[in-house]
Write a structure and sequence with these properties.
By secondary structure, the chain is mostly beta strands. It is built from no helices and eight strands. The protein starts with a strand and ends with a strand.
Length: about 150
C-alpha cells in the first residue's frame, strides 16, 4: 500500500536567536507490515525575531508501527536528509546542513477517506562536524497531518 500525506508542525526553539517556526512537509511512503519507509520534503518558516526560511529533503526515513492492523496505531519514527537555511546564527556555521528527525506518533488509518497523523518529534539541524564548532539547532515540534491511502 502506498500513502501520501501532508503535515503542519509548530515548534519552539529554545535559543536566544529564534523563538518559533512553522514547518510544512509533504511526503510519500510505502508501508510493509510493521515497517514503513518514507521520505518528506521540509519547508521551515522562522518568524521570530526575523523572517527566515529553510528547505530540505529528509529522503531516508522509517516508521515502526506497534500494531499495524488496527485503526489506531502508535509508532516511532526516524528520518535523515539535507537542508538549506537562511538562518545566520552561531549554532549553524553554514547554509547547507544535515537534518535528523526522530519522535513518536499516533496514526489513525481509516479504510476509506483520509487518515490522521499526530507526532511529537525532535528536529536536529547541524553540519555533522564538517565546519566550525557544530553546535547544532534542536527543535521540539508537534506534527499533525492528513494521510490518504492510495490503493491499486
Amino acid at each position: 500500500m502506498t500513502t501520501a500525506s501532508a503535515v503542519l508542525s509548530i515548534g519552539n526553539i529554545q535559543r536566544r536567536h529564534l523563538a518559533s517556526h512553522v514547518a510544512i512537509a509533504s511526503g510519500a511512503s510505502h508501508r510493509v507490515t510493521r515497517l514503513e519507509a518514507y521520505g518528506e520534503g521540509t519547508l521551515l518558516i522562522y518568524y521570530r525575531p526575523d523572517l527566515e526560511v529553510g528547505a530540505g529533503l529528509a529522503g531516508l526515513g522509517g516508521r515502526y508501527h506497534l500494531w499495524p492492523h488496527r485503526v489506531w496505531t502508535p509508532y516511532v519514527t526516524v528520518a535523515a536528509g539535507l537542508i538549506w537555511t537562511s538562518l545566520n546564527i552561531p549554532e549553524l556555521d553554514r547554509r547547507a546542513n544535515f537534518q535528523l528527525l526522530y519522535g513518536v506518533g499516533l496514526r489513525v488509518a481509516r479504510q476509506h477517506g483520509p487518515g490522521w497523523i499526530v507526532e511529537l518529534r525532535n528536529h536536529h539541524i547541524s553540519n555533522a562536524g564538517t565546519a566550525g564548532e557544530n553546535l547544532g539547532l534542536n527543535t521540539i515540534a508537534v506534527v499533525a497531518g492528513v494521510q490518504w491511502i492510495l490503493r491499486r
